[in-house]
Every structure is written in C-alpha cells, then in structure tokens.
Amino acid sequence: MTPPLPPPLVDALLELAHTRRLLVALDFDGTLAPEVDDPELARAIPEARAAVLRLLAIPNTRVALVSGRALASLEQVADLPDSTLLIGSHGIEFRLDTPDIRLSLDTAELKQVDVLGGVLGEVADSIDEVWLEHKPAGFALHTRLATESNSRIAHLVALSETVAELPDVTVRNGKNVLEFSVRSTTKGEAIEHLREYTGATAVFYAGDDVTDEDAFAALGEGDLGLKSGNGETIAAFRVPGPIDIAQALHVLAELRDR
Question: In this predicted structure, what is the pLDDT of residue 99?
C-alpha cells in the first residue's frame, strides 16, 4: 500500500488546483515509468497513465511530457492521446497540437552529428555492454549494463574524444547515460516555451534525473516542482518513485476536477 502524501505536498497541490490555466509537465523515465534495461520496453505504470488521462480530460488543463528521449521513441513508449504535448531530446524536438515534429539542423550541424557518431561509435564498440542511441541532434552513450569500471572508462574516453573533435558539443550527464548534442537546449527552456504556448498561470513539473533540475529551476512563484527518487534537487517536494508521482497526479486531478 502506498503511504499517504506528505500534508505540505497535498496543501501545495490544493493551491495549484485552483489556478486558472494549469500546465502539468512530466518527465517519463523514472517518473511515470520505472527504469528498465531496454529503453524501448519502458511503459508508464497503470496508475500514472490513468492519472494522466484523467488530467487530460479536465478543462483548462494541459499535459506535456518533457523527455530526453528522441520524440519518435517518446511517442511510442508513452502511447497517449494526441492532445498530450510532447517535448523530446531535452527541448530540441516539439510535437504540440499538430502531428508535425519541429526540428531542423543546418548543414554544419549535420556534419557535426556525423563526427559525433564516428567518435562515439568507436567507444561503444570497444567496451562491453556499452551501446549508442542515435538522437536527432546527437547521441546517448548508455552504460546501464556495463560494469562500474567499464562505465567510468566509457565516460572518460567519450568525453575526451568528443571534446577534442568538437569543443562546443553539449554534454549532459544522466543516470547511466552520457548525452552529446550539437544543440544546447534544456528542459528549463522547454518549460518556458510550454508556459508561453499554453498560457499557463501555473506549472506542475515532476522529474527524477539530473537534467530535470533545469526544469525545476524554470519554475517560479505559484508553480510546484516534485522530485521522484533520490539525488540532490532544488524541487520543493520529493517522493520515492513513480507510484507516488501517480498518487500526486491523482490527487491533483481530484482537487482540480471539483
């Protein structure tokens, strides 16, 4: 049985529920879905999916997923109605109220992606249980299945080799993953874009990873940040994991539906 939410969090959700136009923005992996070895097998837990669907049905309430995943991958694993706003690749890709995906790399950026692929491909091929995920503006080097020693070596070699070839490459540390991108965008910028796009008078954001701290930093007075799991955070509140995030979303939906 899931323990009840802390009373201060419930009070904050109650205040948030009264805002005129609410944006509920959520990370996916580790927040709605438990982390798995194969990212394409990740799915939101039933309680979280049900809460998201309930929020989607409430007037003046928009729901967005803000993920480091490539947008095509996010669409597949999330499997949510088209009314869900989707942000992929840490804010590089957008799917808003049309099926179009917004992303355009210029010729120079495309060449940089090719260079990244060559460098990181060699790293992944040379170390056991390290693999490379292609993203529209770069790559993610996954080390979840590698030993601690191999993971550390992969990160060190990848960093030194890529920076030597592309000094301006953007690098993001995540849980058992190191991401390299030829574009510098953050989840914080994605939240600001979504706030303006939806006309939100308040924002709820939940996330679990280091990259979600940028989103928490973009929150202001009247907004609410909720951290899922362990690790340092600037979010105002924290819960143990996805089942607790789902509970918070259900409470928010119940309060707002009234």
Answer: 72
3-state secondary structure the chain: CCCCCCHHHHHHHHHHHCCCCEEEEECCECCCECCCCCHHHCCCCHHHHHHHHHHHCCCCEEEEEECCCCHHHHHHHHCCCCCCEEEEHHHCEEECCCCCCECCCCHHHHHHHHHHHHHHHHHHHHCCCCEEEEECCEEEEECCCCCHHHHHHHHHHHHHHHHHHCCCCEEEEECCEEEEECCCCCHHHHHHHHHHHHCCCEEEEEECCCCHHHHHHCCCCCCEEEEECCCCCCCCEEECCHHHHHHHHHHHHHHHHC
CATH number at residue 164: 3.30.70
- Number of domains composing the chain: 2
Q: Look up the domain containing 163 and give its range.
A: 107-181
The yes-or-no verdict on residue 105 having pLDDT over 80 is no
pLDDT, one tens digit per residue, over 207-221 is: 999 999 999 999 999
Residue 207 Cα to chain centre, angstroms: 7
Is residue 1 a part of any domain in this protein? no
118 belongs to a structural domain: yes
pLDDT tens by residue, 37-56: 888 899 999 999 999 999 99
Distance separating alpha carbons of residues 45 and 127, to the nearest angstrom? 33
> Domain end: 145, 161, 181, which one?
181
Of residues 105, 42, 131, 36, the one with CA closest to residue 78: 42
Answer yes or no: is pLDDT of 102 > 70. no
List CB contacts of 241: < 8 A, sequence separation 6 or more.
30, 34, 228, 229
**240-247 average pLDDT score:** 98
